[in-house]
Design goal:
Keywords: Endonuclease, Hydrolase, Membrane, Nuclease, Transmembrane, Transmembrane helix. The protein is an alpha+beta fold. It is 35% helix and 23% strand.
Amino acid sequence: MIRSRWVGLLVWLLVLPFAAWAVLRAGGWTPVWQWVALVAFTPYVAVASAIPLLLALGLRRWAAAALALVTSAVLATAVLPRHFGDGHQPAFDGGRLRVLAANLAVGAGDTDVLMRLVRSLDPDVLTLQEVTPAARDRLEAAGLRERMPHVVDRAVDGVWGSGVYSKHPVTERPLIALGRFRQARGVVKHPSGHEIEVVSVHPCAPRYGDRVPCWDEGLRALPRAGGQLRVLAGDFNATLDHRLVRDLLDSGYRDAADVTGNGLTPTWPQQGWEPVPGVTIDHVLADSRMAVRSFGVHRLPHTDHRPVFAELGLPRFTKR
């Protein structure tokens, strides 16, 4: 009898943390600042949630099994759609917009490899994060300005710089500057006639408690969807399991990785920079009026992030 009670207690002790995780993730609450980083690992927790479910079923602890089943269902509902493509696509007869985003890790990203990506993928727009003046100069010496002559240059030493390079004319918009992080933005004049605002996204990394407010403000400062076509591309320091990213999607964006069934492909860390499982914190968010024709994650030596690329289809341009 005593042994049975201890077994029951241990089963509940295993089930309850997963249930709490599911509740916090679904509700979007942040009980402690560490949760901001932890919730990014929800896909792994969703897989692991099968363990207490199977254990409870095997031991015939039916109440615990029922809670474990609900927990697994909630987590699976949050995570599994990212593995399957979205079959619904808006019409895209207004041309294409190819977007590449890369975090250069304080300018250390390999110039030659990035230029090979630019030549092979042929982006219309390149957004850079953690771009330093030295990295900018190397890229431009390697021919970046010849291929993409229009630029919003907000490069600075350290992790705070960013930039937007474009094949097409671009008009700079006011910088989003919070906690020294400089999120460059500009309006690209596309040959189709569309004017598309592009933001090089890079809020603070929420590594410590005093950085979480800056991270929060940096994501909240990003423009909501609606009106003018917009694309947000770069290092969000957040996954689709963060409420602030889901709020952006709810405003009228779609995540290109999610739409194409690549939403669980990790973008950070690469090359053993951090002893943690990979998570998806680099994104291309496109206005829901755009089609997502393709998406890919690529490798770039000497940086902890993997560049992301999306080809977007534009709606037919109508003069106002």
